[in-house]
Design the sequence.
């Protein structure tokens, strides 16, 4: 799993959690018993062909308010996650060391990452843009 995937999953929840109803809230729905009433019978001459079951459409993914989620996670912590990639990674309990930041920069398409302040500012904005591209609601103040 890449560094960006860890960031995305920490904010949006893991894909496994999305597939399970109630998993995001830490609850699982109890299994429902199958219906037990018998199907009505009709004379063979008047029986119509069985109707095709309706195709289940996947529910649209709810847009995640990235800023609100991070603000909630950051309550009581002295981190500048709004502009610092290091603090953002710390907030998400991801190792913010140089090697991980260099790997993240490569994932974002940057091969000349050196860890400068300018590099880190660029990377923070790029991560926010990628979160928006992956279904997150990210205000312009975090991407520009």
Sequence:
């Amino acid at each position: 799993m890449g560094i960006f995937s860890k960031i995305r999953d920490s904010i949006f929840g893991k894909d496994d959690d999305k597939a399970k109803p109630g998993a995001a809230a830490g609850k699982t729905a109890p299994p429902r018993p199958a219906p037990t009433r018998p199907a009505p019978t009709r004379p063979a001459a008047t029986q119509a062909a069985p109707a095709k079951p309706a195709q289940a459409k996947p529910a649209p993914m709810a847009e995640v308010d990235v800023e609100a989620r991070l603000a909630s996670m950051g309550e009581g912590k002295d981190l500048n996650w709004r502009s610092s990639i290091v603090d953002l990674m710390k907030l998400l309990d991801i190792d913010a060391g140089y090697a991980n930041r260099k790997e993240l920069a490569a994932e974002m398409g940057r091969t000349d990452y050196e860890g400068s302040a300018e590099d880190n500012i660029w990377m923070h904005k790029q991560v926010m843009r990628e979160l928006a591209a992956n279904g997150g609601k990210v205000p312009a103040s975090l991407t520009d």
Notes: The beta strands are 64-65, 136-137. The longest strand covers residues 64-65. The mean pLDDT is 81. The chain is about 40% helix and 5% strand.
